[in-house]
Design a protein that fits this description.
The protein is mostly beta strands. The chain contains five helices and 17 strands. The chain has one domain: Porin (Beta Barrel), CATH 2.40.160.10. The chain is about 15% helix and about 50% strand. A 16-stranded antiparallel beta barrel has the order 2-3-4-5-6-7-8-9-10-11-12-13-14-15-16-17.
Amino acid sequence: MPPPRRHLASLARVLPLLALLLPSLAGAEEPSRKLEVKPLVVGDEDGPASLRIAFTLQGMYEMLVVDVETDDARIDDYGARFRRVRFVFGGHLATPKLTWRLQMSTLPGSLELLDLTLNYAFLPQFQLMTGNFKIPFTRYRLNSFKNLSAVDWDLPTPYFGAERQKGIVAHNGFGKLEGFEYSVGLFTGVAARGPHAKGLADIHGETLRSYSDLTQRPRLEKIHPEIVVHLAWNHGGMQHRPEADLEGGPLRMSAGLSLAWDTRPDPVRDVSIRIAPEFWMKVHGFAFHATGYLGFFERGGDLLDTQLALAALVTRAGYTIRHMAEVALQYALVHARPVLLDHARDRADGIIAAATDPDEIAALTERYADAGTLEYMHAFSLILDFFMIDGLIRWSNDLTWLVTDSRSASSAHEIRFRAQLQLDF
């Protein structure tokens, strides 16, 4: 592996260059005419059918420096890769009231069905959507990946299960600009893929299957119905996409609350009850949002014996320069409480104790070494985004200090740098 100093020196050269771009953007003239980039649309929106095709490509460079708090600081991982290759198809059938959407991930070596939905608007304030899609748990997670300020969602999302599931939801429109917004849904309780639902499984030393991979197609596990509710009040034409306040203007804001109740949770993968209040605000180029999370753990399958198991927070504040770049600070926290950690450790010790073969005992001991050890995770991020050609091209950069506190060891400190180029049309 190349010496760490070589890569740290490269990083030290990149960051000042990014900083030098800010004064030039501040003195730059705003474009007199925007280039409007739209997806490909076939058919008439008022006709019998239409087809809309969109595409997003993301390439990312990442470098991770570990053991920063010791004299053994070293680069543990670095390199460039395609992060997302997404095709989105949508349109209406027979009537504009009946719409459909299909999203596919086509990264090299994989083929995933992410979203497949049908939506019918009975009334402007009452619509039904069914299929496979993100559960409506927090506006932060409902936002598309391509609208995030940072390169990806922060620490809390894997622990609070805002992942895609099969289900049906009644709503009055997602991301309304004004007034009251609601979504009430019934879902299978089984996440279609792992990235944003694997937190509890990680704490227990387990892994999650992916049911969205069309090259594997494992059988769906036993469902356990989950009820999800999202309520929000929006004011001033609040636009959540993107997180940055690119349009500028007077005060806009949104206050929301998300609730989820898993009727028969798997204690290794699910909390019983999740609650997430959030607040968004934009004004004259400044953008702020904060989302808090509480997760309650059902001990022994008894709803009456439910205790707080997880708490988390993500908050960011950013300022947009000339509608072309944003500088932002973001902080995220995840805290796993003793009731959850003790359950994970006791379960792991029981599995190991039940084994009789020495090789199996050794393998299980290694597998569950970190079960029930995570106490706190913190992430402090500096974010710098550049928006080009009216969002067709976006260059995102984040520099993050990660701190992990666990029962089994002293605090671990890491530094992560990510640079991502996005093409979206």
